[in-house]
Amino acid sequence: MRRSLVAEPPIHCLTTSATCQRKCPIWPLRRPWGRRKPNRGSESSTRRLISSGVTCYHPLVFAQERRTAIMTLLEQHGRLSVGDIQTQLSASPATIRRDLGEMERLGTVVRTHGGIIHPSVLQGEPVFQRRAQIGSDAKRAIAERAAREVDAGMVVYIDSGTSALAVASLLVARRGLTIVTNSIPILALSRSDGATIVSTGGTVRVPSQSLVGSDAHGWLSRIRVDVAIIGASGLSPQDGPSVTSLEECATKRGAIERATRTILIADASKWGRPALIAFAGWPAIDTWITDAEPVGPEAARVCTFGTRIIACEHPHRWP
């Protein structure tokens, strides 16, 4: 008889951290199948644990984990084919189709011919939570560099958006600093022992979790800030930064007009991919902080307007 490499059972279950004692604590039927594998997928794709030579399978938990993995992939890519999912999870097409049918019933995905798309794709703009996961390393590097541009005692406007949120998270702990913002997630970072956070007021715009409209714009017209830190949805070498919403455009313009200095924070993936509405030309941008310096004559054109480009060390290949 082959000796087990494990000194003493029991072994902790990989799916629940519950202790296996020859009876499955999760699956209601409590059926240990012993050495014979059930017909529920390949050994490599099915979670299992071995305790004293007995293999216990958890099909229900594995299905839940599989659907969670599908949702994680979908949040990263926006759309997936059945083949993509099958490759990533090593599951059969029939299993994937059953999962997608259940996820569609719950309203977490939208089925298409041969695959699925994230519900936010149909809204024309990614939801805030999904955008926060895109290019997180680049956003972190940009945020750290932008925070160094803010001195003690300043009044700084911080825009809405995931890149701006990364900057604000590094500044909220600074006493004596005043942060003016139209970002709801930044307002939620407020703390009694840190920076003073002031809201612009306005109407909630759900995709960007921001406050926009005439109230926000009117309030901005009555203040003066030392620095405005502004994000963008796209960048044109000719026309400057741009956004997808008219309401966001008006708020960004208002902040730039009331700032002594304007810092644009935008990663390399947005270069040469302008959004619908330009909110400022390059002459209005004093500093552009990005994750990699643009190259070629178009980049030199930006510098002729007096815009200083600061590239972080985060590696990125320009489109």
Task: Walk me through what this model shows.
Residues 1-61 and 315-319 have low confidence and may be disordered. It is built from 10 helices and 17 strands. Helix 5 (136-147) crosses helix 6 (162-171). The chain folds into 2 domains: 61-124, Winged helix-like DNA-binding domain superfamily/Winged helix DNA-binding domain (Arc Repressor Mutant, subunit A, Orthogonal Bundle), CATH 1.10.10.10; 129-311, Rossmann fold (3-Layer(aba) Sandwich). The chain has 319 residues and is an alpha/beta fold. The protein has a 7-stranded parallel beta sheet, with helices on both faces. A 3-stranded antiparallel beta sheet has the order 3-5-4.
Order of helices and strands: EEHEHHEEHHEHEHEEEHEEEHEEEHE
Would you identify the regions where 5 or more consecutive residues have pLDDT less than 50?
1-61, 315-319
Number of domains: 2
Radius of gyration: 26 Å
Proportion of β residues? 15-25%
What is the molecular shape? Answer: globular
| Global mean pLDDT | 78
What's the helical proportion of residues?
25-40%
Biggest sheet strand line-up: 8-7-6-11-14-16-17
CATH class of the largest domain: Alpha Beta
CATH architecture of the largest domain: 3-Layer(aba) Sandwich
